[in-house]
Amino acid sequence: MKISSQVDRAEPKTHSRLPFLDGLRALAALWVVLGHCHLFAYGWNSHQSIWTKAINALLYLHLGVVVFLVLSGFCLALPVLRNQNRLSAGVLGFFKARATRILPPYFAILCLILLINFFIPLGAWGRHPIGLTPTISWEILAVNFSLMQDFYPQFNAINGPFWSIATEWHLYFFFPLLVFFLRKFGALIAFALSCILASAIVWIASHPPQFVSNLQMTIMTPSYFLYLFVFGMFAAWLAFGEGYLQRRRQQWLILLPLFAATLVWFVSLMNTYAIKDAASATRFAEQAQTIDIVFAVLVSIGLVWLAGRAPHSMARRLLESKALTKIGHFSYSLYLVHIPVLAITNHLIEEMHLPTNLMHLHFAILVVVGTGFSIVFANIFCKIFETGLWWRWISGVKK
Fold it and tell me: Does residue 393 lie in a domain region?
């Protein structure tokens, strides 16, 4: 993900709305979009100038996906906590709701990309071979239409961000089991069992059976994303689970030292594996599991903290600004559509044949024009495919 803005927005009865979640979705989506702008313009090269050093943060756009996954677990757990640790619509209802929200936008942009690619091959416009491709094999089509990119990542060659949609989709299949743990054993034991389950999945993924290797498959890559999902769910319980008001002050006696220690660890990791060029980006990717899990702990504790802030607090007001919450509502669509829009914008910029010393101008145009059009298109796309307008058109229902 989602990764996705399609997660349920139902909250516990003590909170009718948590708009700061939309603000966080917006920031995560923009981190990914602007990160891709940076990669189109500069590649994996970092900046040393005092004026441009700050944009090195865009090189770590992968962490925006981590935020999406934690948010997904957090938001999906909220209605469960409100309903006495049960799925309000049952297992089938849960999957129907997830499929209705995720699949129409996904298949719509997949078909749109393939349609455009049929008339104008987009391969030359992509940043690298795993982006848009001029030739589409049947294996690529089969994997993308079945959302199996996390089992066959070598065929994720239509739209790069699709890998995380596939991973999040498969994480949903664990959710009813995690809810069962919560209802049967309580939050603390459920958290321990969920982490054990995640560890088992990660171990199996790193030690696949022979038939999996023979089929050139992987197992839910990256499998450790299940940890991120679990952390988000547990953060929701800490923030709004049964008895949260009574334990709120005491739990910070643990959470504050944990946050401080984790922050030191995260800063150390980011300093040790800082991205400076393509080679260091590869080294960073090799440590992604540790970095992502550590960052997910920080995000989870941050969600608990934000949930306890008053709506008029500065942090909440910033995240709940009209611009951010608006983008947050269609952040899933923005995540899906931004690569094709940026690729086309980048191609047009390259046609201008700017001097190599004007890379900053290249980046600025991508940010202003590419991101701007991505946001506008994503908003329209969301109204049609995320809100169900497509289905009302087909069925003839006007409301």
Answer: no
